[in-house]
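Late entry, written up from scratch paper. The run itself happened at the end of the previous shift, but nothing got recorded in the book at the time, so transcribing now.
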Amino acid sequence: MKLKQLLPKNKKVFIWILLLALVIITIATGIDYYIHTLEEEYTVPSTYFTNKIIYGGLFIFIILIIFRKLHPSNKAIIAALVTSLLLEVKYTLQGYPKVFLIIFIFIHFGAILLPAWILLGKFDKYIKT
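Output as recorded:
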């Protein structure tokens, strides 16, 4: 399949997908930020959250473009799973401890799944074309 076939023909759909991806990752980052404040051993540098919004938003945007015709709950699960796995690969390469990575892969999955499930369920009609 060619890239041109994956991209939505309607610019409004493209903008809706971009907005949804940014809102989903921003809410997920807020949840993640709160969890990181609960324990001192979960402390991370502030760039962690900025990078999460940039990379996570990009990952979710691409996933929503590719899978936009699926059922909203399936898109939410795929977006949460793929994005959390890719973020954990990035954090592994950055040298975060294994225990930290194991705990936070589940936290990231849930933090992304929750807003994705709600928002895609509510606004899916705008990105389906």
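The CA atoms of residues 32 and 38 lie 10 Å apart.
(Scratch paper discarded after transcription.)
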